[in-house]
Design goal:
This protein is an alpha+beta fold. It is built from four helices and twelve strands. It is 19% helix and 32% strand. Homodimer.
């Protein structure tokens, strides 16, 4: 049987989603929980790799099990042994051809910023407190340059030579009083891509850089990757199949 699970987590206390040696990760905690239940090592597939401190409303995983367990019982069992900052929202049985990463049609991220003087302390793990007023209209104009099928190597923390061409379907920016929310959907994302795009737009709002369009590439003075939004405001919102 192959099971697919939808997961929410607070990434504050983890060194990212993907398992790494000698550090605490979300994948590591999930695989430890599966081992406690099934008494064997299981390696999961996952829809997207999130960095240290990044959160998820809906991450998707899948894994094979040589057993027949009712989906609700499996969800309940996993939640009983997982840390409280990782929750299984749902479990279902899928076809063996299903793969959380390769079967996905698109992914969506949201990023939360706050430009008021006083950020409530209980939000500091989930919101970037920007210390100046954000110009949402200016950022919306600049955001159009990131939409479409482009080479995003200039906003990705990927090794040289990797294919960094991706298609961004939309990038929307909305203000709710002192909160500014960035919502971006794409077929796939590169490492650091969303945080770098948000950082560039915030830098543009502050007149800290200039963005010019030339063909299909966005240019700027200085090091583009130095404009990087902190991890705390970023959430994997949805994976569609």
């Amino acid at each position: 049987m192959r099971y697919c699970a939808c997961i929410a987590y607070d990434g504050t206390n983890y060194s990212g989603f993907q398992i790494q040696p000698d550090v605490k990760t979300v994948q590591g905690e999930i695989e430890k929980a599966l081992k406690r239940i099934f008494k064997t090592d299981l390696r999961i597939n996952f829809a997207g790799r999130t960095d240290a401190g990044v959160h998820a409303f809906e991450q998707v995983i899948d894994f094979p099990v040589i057993a027949d367990i009712e989906t609700y019982s499996l969800k309940k069992a996993l939640n009983s042994v997982l840390p409280e900052d990782i929750r299984i929202k749902s479990v279902k049985i899928v076809d063996n051809s299903f793969h959380s990463r390769y079967s996905a049609k698109f992914r969506e991220y949201v990023y939360f910023a706050f430009d008021g003087e006083y950020l409530p302390p209980f939000l500091c793990r989930y919101v970037w407190h920007v210390k100046f007023k954000l110009d949402v209209d200016a950022m919306r104009l600049a955001s159009r340059l990131f939409v479409g099928y482009k080479d995003f190597s200039f906003v990705a923390n990927e090794p040289e030579g990797k294919n960094c061409t991706r298609e961004v379907y939309f990038l929307r920016i909305k203000r709710y009083r002192e909160f500014v929310v960035f919502h971006i959907r794409a077929g796939g994302f590169l490492r650091g891509m969303v945080r770098n795009i948000v950082g560039l737009l915030v830098g543009y709002s502050a007149n800290a850089l200039q963005i010019d369009k030339s063909g299909n590439i966005i240019f700027s003075r200085g090091n583009l990757k130095s404009f990087k939004a902190p991890a705390c405001g970023l959430f994997l919102r949805r994976v569609a199949y």
